[in-house]
């Protein structure tokens, strides 16, 4: 059994996805022409066991139904055209130097550029310096920037969004903790003007009878007695009883 076939079957048995790097410029390779023009000596293929690959192994190499741009094509990749096979998740696998194209070999042998100084990311806001958890995350993002700039950019963007969400959350908590403002006191209704009571008119005491009134009464009584005496005299003269 070829080592490539053995590793593919082992990874499928563990539920993992084998990833192949293939030189599709070789004559025995069968795949769409646009794939050959686009990828040339460095085509990456994922043999995911969750897809209906109808995978088969022959003396020549590996056959499978693969989808390119939505079109499924039966492809054939000779073992001699496969120069790398590894686990898609862990990156562990095998490399076959004899099958590796010269352009790929030179690319891997080229010296790597000197690592750039790690940038220090600081979240700008009201809170000033980032929290320790944010600093650890930013350091990890800086390390990823040396490996994959595109991946690091995505992580930096997401980290900035999380920092903004944290600042908004802190502002919301501060506003909730502040005591609610007291409502302004309502103006008291205007007091009614007191109604002044009408002054009481003191009644004048009745005047006590004076001496003149007493004498007048006595004279009136005397006059009445004289009148009665005259009437009695008239009755005697007239002979009436």
Automatic annotation (TrEMBL):
Chain segments carrying region Disordered: 101-241
Q: Where is the composition biased (Low complexity)?
A: 135-144, 193-222
The record's annotation in SUPFAM superfamilies points to: SspB-like
Basic residues compositional bias, start-end? 161-171
Give residue spans, biased composition: Pro residues: 181-192
Please report the name of this protein according to its UniProt entry.
Stringent starvation protein B
Write down the species. Answer: Plesiocystis pacifica SIR-1
Provide the taxonomic classification. Answer: Bacteria, Pseudomonadati, Myxococcota, Polyangia, Nannocystales
